[in-house]
Amino acid sequence: MTSEEFEANYTKTLDTILEALANSSEVKPEKFYSLACVIENLRFFSPVFYNAIKPAEDRQH
Predict the structure, then answer these.
(1) Does residue 58 register a pLDDT over 80?
(2) CB-hemisphere CA count at 13 Å for 30?
(3) What pLDDT is stored for residue 8 in this prediction?
(4) CA separation (Å) from 25 to 17, 51, 56?
(5) What is the DSSP track for the chain?
(6) 47: containing domain
(7) Residue 56 to residues 3, 8, 53, Cα–Cα distance (Å)
(8) Domain tally for the chain?
(9) Rounded-to-integer distance, Cα 38 and Cα 43, Å
């Protein structure tokens, strides 16, 4: 998987999580903003996560 593919999948996953939180009756509206900020900030770590798991994938092949 290339870094671009990882970024696209990672972003889609975070968007899915955010949407699920928005539609959940268990998440209080006053807490949603904080959760949304955390999820949005996780986007910045995509290159770090990719680099952390890429060597592990290379060792398996």
Answers:
(1) no
(2) 0
(3) 95
(4) 14, 36, 38
(5) --HHHHHHHHHHHHHHHHHHHHH-TTS-HHHHHHHHHHHHHHGGGHHHHHHHHHHHHHHH-
(6) 3-60
(7) 14, 20, 5
(8) 1
(9) 9
pLDDT beyond 60 at 4: yes
Are 10 and 49 in contact, with CB atoms under 8 Å apart?
A: yes
Residue given tokens 């999580």 in the structure block: 17
Length of the chain measured in residues? 61
Q: Looking at residue 61, what is its pLDDT?
A: 58
pLDDT digits (tens, 9 = 90+) for 7-49: 999 999 999 999 999 999 998 988 899 989 999 999 999 999 9
